[in-house]
């Protein structure tokens, strides 16, 4: 409780700091939520071993390989397998005409653009969906399917509101095979903190997506922008400026699809930042608490990370912030709301719906990292996350060899150092051969001060590094193949033990 209050105080201070320090206020608030199709929502605990056997194939391979895949991406299994599409419609008993009368919304995720020989090339990505009007009692039933060991009736009123909010974002009906167009407008930004807004260059234009949304209602494509002039003249070419220019991007036909696009110069520094357990307190490694933190409680920043980011935004010229979380697309809007109130504005990535199945879950972070690295072959990158994501532990160091010269720093919060209840093992073997000055395992945000990341000085010699270049942090001194360590994840111990027995028999 005490640390919760401290966290909240820091949050207030940070919020004040970020307004007075002039962290750019994102122009139109990004909107739009999730989508949806039906698979029964899964529970964290109390899993029925017998009925789970059907799905054991992928679970089995992931357990034998390394960790359960639902944790691999830093996403616990209560955030997997959300219902989608027609399954939502039928589970809510919605008629086609009810649905037709429901307005279409667009999740328009802030994109990034690169400079090409044909001009600015902007990534549009997001989802088209309808959000049915669900009665409160029905919402409560649906929310209770996600909650474990508690029910919505037992939560305080503000948490009830939040849980209903998330549930309604999960129960949306995605709109496949629709055409989407965007209206692009020059952006006006209060970026200097002196109350003098500046309007960026570029004029109005319409851009139509090529083809229709996918079967999941998603879209993700780069499109070339025309060079048109507006009140502040033309956009500058990306090889003729170091400034990040912005544009407002509105989905046509709805006011739910407003976002900001970031036109990022050919050279410069980009930070790719994870969110859970680095920018906010999630405690993914403690499923019961992680569930409530994600589903019912307001998002709380992790310690004074907002100060660190505000300082970087101020002191590193033209620093491009890109937030890359593998949280499901359905709840992206809540993540964006939190980030843009607490951290500097920037482009965003979440897990697209076609990466929902267990096998694709493992590859999503790599896919998104490669996409941004390929878009900016001459930029350098700072990568930041925490040790509780096994995909991060693999994918971040892999970028060093895959994109030579492009990784400037890797920062990993050692979650078990500040949270002794995190018994989640992590694998440091990927760091073998990478020079120490390029990366740091750190304990608290202040460890990130007094670095010169612009010049590649990313290691603070006063922070002890205890790296074995192998699996670390295993509980009870168990070896890598000790499947019983999974029980430590806060799961129902008995179920886990049964599973171990089952696995032993099957193997
Ligand atoms: C900038 O980019 C344009 C378009 O790609 C190219 O024609 C021009 O030569 C480049 N200018 C410089 C200085 O590299
Ligand atoms: C949603 O349904 C409730 C009744 O079930 C109704 O009172 C409310 O006006 C509806 N809201 C919208 C936006 O249609
Ligand atoms: C849920 O909360 C978010 C963030 O506060 C808000 O933007 C969104 O409109 C809410 N969604 C619903 C369905 O109430
Ligand atoms: C989308 O646009 C294409 C080309 O203009 C058109 O052929 C197609 O019918 C449109 N699809 C829908 C669902 O309106
Ligand atoms: C998901 O869709 C994107 C395009 O929207 C595509 O590039 C990607 O390969 C797809 N991934 C999977 C796992 O299907
Ligand atoms: C657009 O065209 C104008 C006028 O030719 C030129 O000054 C400007 O650099 C161009 N900007 C971009 C982004 O191509
Ligand atoms: C934009 O939306 C309006 C209103 O919904 C619609 O009439 C118009 O046809 C749309 N324009 C395009 C290019 O899709
Ligand atoms: C989106 O932008 C339009 C045009 O500026 C504005 O009218 C609308 O209120 C915005 N919607 C949201 C949800 O902020
Ligand atoms: C711009 O980004 C696209 C999409 O990632 C990439 O294919 C292309 O090579 C990039 N262009 C340049 C000049 O970097
Ligand atoms: C992380 O912190 C734990 C607990 O203090 C420590 O045992 C471990 O060696 C640290 N890991 C690294 C990579 O420094
Ligand atoms: C702010 O950032 C600069 C540049 O990275 C760094 O030198 C300085 O130590 C930082 N200060 C704090 C208080 O974080
Ligand atoms: C260093 O890591 C090893 C292996 O994970 C662990 O046994 C040891 O306690 C750690 N030492 C410190 C000082 O944290």
From TrEMBL:
It comes from the Eukaryota. GO terms for cellular component: actin cortical patch. Residues 270-414 form the Phosphatidate phosphatase APP1 catalytic domain. GO terms for molecular function: phosphatidate phosphatase activity. The keyword Signal applies. Pfam families: APP1_cat. InterPro entries: APP1_cat, Mg2+_PAP. Residues 1-22 form the signal peptide. Keywords: Signal. PANTHER family: PHOSPHATIDATE PHOSPHATASE APP1, PHOSPHATIDATE PHOSPHATASE APP1 CATALYTIC DOMAIN-CONTAINING PROTEIN. This is Phosphatidate phosphatase APP1 catalytic domain-containing protein. It comes from Oidiodendron maius (strain Zn).
């Amino acid at each position: 409780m005490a640390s919760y209050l401290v966290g909240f105080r820091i949050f207030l201070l940070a919020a004040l700091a970020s307004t007075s320090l002039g962290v750019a206020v994102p122009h139109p608030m990004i909107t739009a939520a999730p989508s949806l199709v039906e698979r029964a929502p899964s529970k964290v605990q109390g899993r029925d071993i017998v009925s789970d056997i059907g799905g054991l194939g992928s679970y089995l391979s992931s357990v034998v390989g390394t960790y359960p895949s639902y944790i691999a991406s830093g996403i616990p299994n209560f955030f997997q397998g959300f219902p989608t599409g027609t399954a939502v419609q039928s589970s809510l008993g919605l008629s086609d005409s009810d649905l037709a009368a429901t307005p279409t919304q667009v999740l328009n995720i802030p994109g990034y653009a690169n400079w090409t020989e044909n001009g600015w090339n902007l990534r549009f990505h997001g989802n088209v969906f309808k959000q049915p009007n669900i009665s409160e009692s029905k919402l409560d039933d649906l929310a209770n399917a996600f909650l474990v060991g508690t029910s919505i009736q037992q939560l305080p009123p503000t948490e009830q509101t939040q849980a209903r909010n998330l549930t309604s974002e999960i129960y949306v009906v995605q709109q496949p095979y629709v055409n989407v167009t965007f209206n692009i407008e020059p952006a006006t930004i209060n970026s200097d903190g002196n109350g003098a807004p500046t309007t960026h260059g570029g004029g109005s234009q319409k851009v139509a997506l090529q083809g229709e949304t996918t079967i999941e209602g998603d879209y993700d494509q780069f499109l070339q922008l025309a060079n048109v002039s507006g009140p502040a003249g033309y956009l500058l070419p990306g090889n003729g400026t170091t400034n990040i220019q912005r544009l407002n991007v509105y989905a046509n036909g709805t006011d739910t699809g407003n976002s900001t696009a970031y036109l990022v110069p050919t050279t410069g520094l980009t930070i790719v930042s994870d969110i859970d357990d680095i920018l906010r307190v999630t405690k993914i490694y403690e499923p019961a608490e992680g569930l409530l933190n994600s589903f019912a409680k307001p998002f709380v920043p992790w310690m004074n990370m907002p100060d660190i980011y505000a300082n970087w935004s101020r002191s590193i010229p033209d620093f491009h912030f890109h937030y890359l979380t593998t949280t499901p697309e359905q709840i992206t809007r809540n993540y964006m709301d939190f980030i843009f109130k607490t951290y500097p504005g920037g482009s965003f990535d979440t897990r697209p719906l076609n990466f929902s199945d267990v096998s694709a879950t493992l590859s999503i972070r790599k896919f998104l990292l490669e996409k941004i690295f390929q878009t900016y072959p001459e930029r350098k990158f700072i990568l930041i996350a925490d040790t509780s994501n096994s995909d991060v532990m693999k994918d971040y160091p892999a970028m060093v060899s895959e994109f030579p010269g492009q990784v400037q720093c890797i920062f990993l919060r050692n979650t078990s150092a500040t949270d002794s209840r995190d018994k989640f093992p992590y694998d440091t073997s990927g760091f073998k051969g990478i020079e120490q000055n390029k990366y740091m395992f750190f304990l608290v945000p202040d460890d990130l001060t007094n670095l010169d990341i612009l010049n590649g000085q990313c290691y603070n010699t006063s922070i002890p590094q205890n790296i074995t270049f192998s699996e670390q942090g295993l509980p009870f001194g168990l070896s890598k193949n000790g499947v019983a360590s999974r029980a430590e994840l806060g799961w129902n111990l008995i179920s886990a033990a049964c599973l171990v027995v089952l696995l032993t028999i099957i193997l």
